[in-house]
């Protein structure tokens, strides 16, 4: 008899109840960048854990509190879940087809800000736990949760928190906040995350805006200063121009290239989803694109602001201008190194008037693709998805996995319900109900197998 | 006996009534760029003219209507006033100390959007006419008004209107929409205006924004495309890089330099008003600054927009970016020439993905500094201001004076109530009551003297 038959039935029968719980959590606009709803959301997360018999507490940091929870299980193995309860801003609001903080079911998808990243993943893990508790009355292993509230703003206090609580967080393995299937429905195992150094560059050239008819040929213009400063960071060849910026970049290993070669190309999926004419530097796809996507540092302008932005024209010479810039890092770059090289570079190029505001940084981090826990998670997917997970050595996004890898010495795997159309960080973020169910089923296998290792 | 003693007394006694009329006109938010309140404002302008015995009519254009009005006077000389009833957007609203569309008296100043540019000038001319009608029961000369509603958006339909109505608009001289005193209180006569070619540059690189962790090294980024395209237009040396851009620029003549040398330097005033560290290209002041300010074409970024602009960070790769760019032109450049050279340049530099939206253009125009009407206006200022006007051969701003100069063959002078702190186009636009009164007094002299030429 299939030991998971009852578990799977439980999950199928309680899907609606889990989605209702998720809907409730998504109603709290816990936007870290805008500092709204964080305390309320943390309290609800703790309450949801207590309902499952976890001992849950809100541990203060210098920013949003961390929810820590634990419950003992049958085996003495301990699994640590890392999730976060903060979400990205919902803007631009006019592109949402339903209100971002009212989870809305349309067809086979549930839409809301955070419904995937990361509230959906958190609730989905509770859902899997519910099914095992229903069957066994106990957990197969010890489980700990760390649910932080500052992931979307660069996790500025997580490292300090983990270093202060290494004994409390002691575990044998860690499951990361997210995971997904690729465009063919194949679940993917991401074993590394790029780091990030996120900055705001700003210039102020006068104390007030001027008439552009008056000052155009004689007054300094903050928007021009910003454009020229940005232009020194990267040119159309896509090479970052900051001196020695690439000196600590470790190129992909042979094993990395071997794994990357097995990954189905996402080129066509990217082209159609984003409607882009082509990829940077003319790359066509295949392993070349897979490596370019994740094994290189990036320098991305995320936003530009200056002067008049309404309809029509306004003849104004702006005194202030700013840009948000996302620098993704690869091993062994560090945020401190990127920040310091950026400052030196701007100064050397004559842009000491450009102020750098450091908005957050995380170092890159990788798990060994040959770790036994990785293998367990990858292989156990077969029973649910029909195929094992594709192992991807490195992914473009960032998260504080390096803290867990280095401070807690844990292998870190990804497992989750995302898919290429999940629109994380974008309007109309959503989860597919079929994947929501599969993800929970997979987690019941992971927990059960892990308990026996 | 002073023939203007009664006129001056009338103006002093009726100042409050004139300001009340101005307050009413400023209540209409006739923002051309946002297409609000234009018809309502045109109707009120016509009504105000009819109250003075003018025959006034609203003449349609393909945009906002032009108010045309005329009234015959004692002499057969005809003076044409050019004004406009549209105003600049009031944004940024948070910098206004009182609501922009509720004229508010604080100390010796009246604050509102349009209170100077240009509703204040229009009402002030009616005020001078009232004083002469009160004394004489008739006008000294024929007076015509052209009050358009599209000046702040580049007067796109004025040239067509003037060409279609050359007989109706026939006159002997023209008084321009604005005028001002300098920082020492000396009235200034501006005899030329730079032209303008105002464009919006926009790029779209995908159909939707992407996660900046995903796409930074492989997806095209609209903000980067815009920055690189803008960077090709002008570098930190302030020289416009568009090929042959300067070929039709006429350098200042010896007479221009002679006049410019007499102008008191505004360097210190600019430094303290705008809080700028220095002028472009290191110019210190004097005639060099005066010439650089107005006899050179400019390329000004008036606004930048892309991606996330809220507080904190959002990890997004923007699919759209745009910039507002103000190109000021000097004789004999034309807007069509600037536009065409800009397009060719962007294409040649590899930026054919940068779309140009032409938001308005006006050619530059100049009046002969030795015209008799110029002399009359300049000299008649002495009785009111204690000094003759300073003659400035060219000014940095733009307006459709070339249309009147070329189509109607009229000398065009400036006369008005502005001053360096008037904040036209900026928050807290205002008029000083003492200058409001002097301006009307000066106009009664101009009308009376002109009638006798």
Summed up:
The structure is a homodimer of 453-residue chains. With 453 residues, the first copy, chain A, is of the alpha/beta class.
Describe this structure in words.
2 copies of one chain form a homodimer. With 453 residues, the first copy, chain A, is of the alpha/beta class. Chain A has 2 domains: 5-191 and 367-451, Aminopeptidase (3-Layer(aba) Sandwich), CATH 3.40.630.10; 195-251 and 295-362, 2-Layer Sandwich (Alpha-Beta Plaits). Chain A has helices at residues 5-13, 15-26, 38-50, 119-136, 158-164, 212-215, 222-233, 254-262, 267-274, 286-294, 335-348, 372-380, 382-385, 401-407, 433-451; strands spanning 55-59, 66-71, 78-84, 104-106, 109-111, 142-148, 173-175, 180-181, 187-190, 192-204, 210-211, 298-307, 316-317, 320-329, 355-362, 365-366, 390-392, 395-398, 412-413, 430-432. In chain A, strands 1-2-6-3-7-19 form a 6-stranded mixed sheet. In chain A, strands 10, 12, 14, 15, 16 and 18 form a 6-stranded mixed sheet that branches. The radius of gyration of chain A is 23 Å and the shape is globular. The model of chain A has no long low-confidence stretch (mean pLDDT 95). At the A-B interface, strand 10, strand 11, helix 6, helix 7 and helix 9 of A face strand 11, strand 12, helix 6, helix 7 and helix 9 of B. Strand 12 of chain A pairs antiparallel with strand 13 of chain B.
